[in-house]
Design a protein that fits this description.
There is one protein chain. This protein has about 350 residues and is an alpha/beta fold. The chain is about 35% helix and about 10% strand. It has two domains: about 5-35 and about 260-350, Aspartate Aminotransferase, domain 1 (Alpha-Beta Complex), CATH 3.90.1150; about 45-255, Type I PLP-dependent aspartate aminotransferase-like (Major domain) (Aspartate Aminotransferase, domain 2). Helix 4 links the parallel strand 3 (about 100-105) and strand 4 (about 125). Helix 1 runs antiparallel to helix 7, helix 2 (about 60-70) runs parallel beside helix 7 (about 245-255) and helix 3 (about 85-95) packs across helix 6. Bound molecules: pyridoxal-5'-phosphate.
């Protein structure tokens, strides 16, 4: 009767809502509003289904080689996984194996503390400054590893390469992971620091800038030594994680650089326009270099705006958490979706009672 006393109990991560109906404007999980390159569609329609009989290439060579070409690194410096969630989870298991706490910001991707809990890794959160910035001086304490996103989520704030390097330089005895899920929307990647630091791991994903959240592709780039350690753990858990069709589609997506540049630039332009519209409505937000804006209104309650938008079938993201409960995270959609969103928002602000007067 005591079987439940030996269970690995965890509180799981809460993903953003994926509504079943399709007639919604979905600005809640930072997906790309544009489809993947047509080259992915070609792979899908030409794929011979009988090839599914066979196990996939455990090294995902076709995808790793395409990434190595694109990022100008050696294939032995690349690790691919089933979404960057898979990559980061493996990296936690591999590199965060110390009794000292790992460090990450207090406001950040809400999966980090979940992985730390499931793998029994001690952690300490480092408060962001008042304006949601990382102060590298705060990362000069004893630690068992460091991870932070750049740009950060859900704030959208981009830190300079100098700030990132300052943290890496101060921590030669730790692995420092930079989660660059949103770097393609205007930031400078820490990939340029790889030649200088053997303990740096840069993690990116196909889910946002490459329009393939449903396909589940993420990757890490680091020193050959680090990637070897990461693969040793991965091949001790499950060797055949990425299916062959995904490997092919991912490789084709990487090769279409023109489409990648066009769509990421378009989203960045829509984002800059969205900033102006939100400012005109009285919203404030930390400056975003990602594909979302983290906005707050001085007069109206964020939870109430969230509910009113949802009633109009427009989904954004809201967290009932300390420091951020008055913010909404708004994913950048197509210009048409954003126009419908602004129209609804203007209507809501006209009718909603002001904060504190409810
Ligand atoms: C979206 C996101 C991820 C995970 O993306 P995958 O879909 O698993 O590749 C990781 N980190 C951050 C900060 C994200 O926003």
């Amino acid at each position: 009767m005591n079987w439940e006393s030996n269970i690995r109990r965890v509180v799981p991560y809460t993903p953003g809502e994926q509504p079943k109906c399709t007639d919604v404007i979905k600005l809640n999980t930072n997906e790309n509003p544009y489809p993947p390159t047509l080259r992915v569609a070609e792979i899908l329609s030409n794929y011979e289904y009988h090839r599914m009989r066979l196990y996939p290439d455990t090294n995902s060579e076709v995808l790793v080689n395409a990434l190595a070409d694109f990022y100008k690194v050696k294939p032995s410096q690349i690790f691919v996984g089933v979404g960057s969630d898979d990559v980061i989870s493996m990296a936690f298991m591999t590199f965060f194996n110390s009794d000292k706490p790992i460090l990450f910001p207090d406001i950040t991707y809400s999966f980090y503390d979940v992985w730390a809990d499931v793998y029994r890794i001690p952690y300490k959160t480092i408060p962001l400054t008042e304006d949601f910035r990382i102060d590298p001086a705060d990362y000069r304490i004893e630690n068992g590893g460091i991870i932070f996103p750049n740009p950060n989520a859900p704030t959208g704030v981009l830190e300079s390469l100098e700030t990132v390097e300052e943290i890496i330089r101060a921590n030669p005895d730790s692995v420092v992971m930079v989660d660059e899920a949103y770097i393609d929307f205007g930031g400078k990647s820490a990939l340029s620091l790889l030649d200088k630091y053997e303990n740096l791991l840069v993690i990116q994903t196909f889910s946002k800038s490459r329009s393939m959240a449903g396909m589940r592709i993420g990757f890490a780039i680091g020193s050959e030594k680090m990637i070897k350690y990461l693969n040793d753990v991965k091949f001790s858990v499950n060797s055949y994680t990425m299916n062959p069709l995904t490997q092919l589609c991912g490789a084709e997506a990487v090769k279409d650089t023109a489409y990648f540049e066009k769509t990421t630039q378009r989203i960045a332009a829509t984002r800059e326009h969205a900033k102006e519209r939100l400012t005109a409505m009285g919203f404030t937000y930390p400056d975003s270099m990602s594909n979302f804006i983290f906005a707050s209104h001085p007069d109206y309650d964020a939870a109430e705006i969230f509910a009113a938008l949802k009633e109009r079938r427009i989904f954004v993201r809201h967290w009932n958490k300390p420091r951020i409960s008055q913010y909404l995270r708004i994913t950048i959609g197509t210009p048409e979706e954003m126009e419908a969103f602004f129209t609804a928002l203007e209507e809501i602000l006209r009718t909603l009672p002001k904060r504190g007067n409810a």
